[in-house]
Amino acid sequence: MTDIFDVIADGTRRDILQLLLGRSAEGDAGTSVTEIVSELGVSQPTVSKHLKVLREAELVTVREDGQRRFYSLSVAPLEAVDDWLVPFLVDAYGDQAPDVDYPAVPLPDGAAHAAEVVGRAAASAKHVVTTALRRLS
Fold it and tell me: What is the rounded distance in angstroms from the CA atom of residue 63 to the CA atom of residue 31?
């Protein structure tokens, strides 16, 4: 299996993942290659090449419908990235790391996914701001 970091290092692949993430948040049942090409403004062969790499890394799933293929995001492999990053975030925030309370009852899938998306965006934004402020100091 290809190293997940090598896979997500490519900007076009990250753009495809972002697009699929947005579509999945909207409840989309998959995004066609044509839609990805149109949305990103990248050629069809380029999109297909990147989708193959994402498929091999199990970051996307594909559903075939006749001649068309519909791609969806599979976030499970990104847990390796999350597991690798968490120690750095904990180290960066130290004692000021926010406490996370998990509810006794699991959230429905849609709510859990939305919470994860919002949490990752907030953590990313906080990291960018913190890094920028450190550079200015």
Answer: 9
3-state secondary structure of 129: helix
More confident residue, 117 or 44: 44
User: What number of CA atoms fall less than 13 Å from residue 81's CA on the CB side?
Assistant: 14
- CB 60 within 8 Å of CB 72: yes
CB 15 within 8 A of CB 48: no
Q: Do 19 and 74 contact (CB within 8 A), yes or no?
A: no
Distance between alpha carbon 6 and the CA centroid of its chain, in Å?
14
The pTM for the full model equals 0.64
- Run of H or E residues at 120: helix 109-136
> How far, in Å, CA of 37 to CA of 47, rounded?
7
For 76-91, what is each residue's pLDDT tens digit? Answer: 888 888 888 777 776 6
Phi-psi region of 98 (alpha: psi -120 to 50; beta: other; left: phi over 0): beta
> What is the distance between the alpha carbons of residues 50 and 17, in angstroms, rounded to a whole number?
10
Tokens (6 digits) for 75: 């976030």
Beta strands in 44-104 (DSSP E): 60-65, 68-73
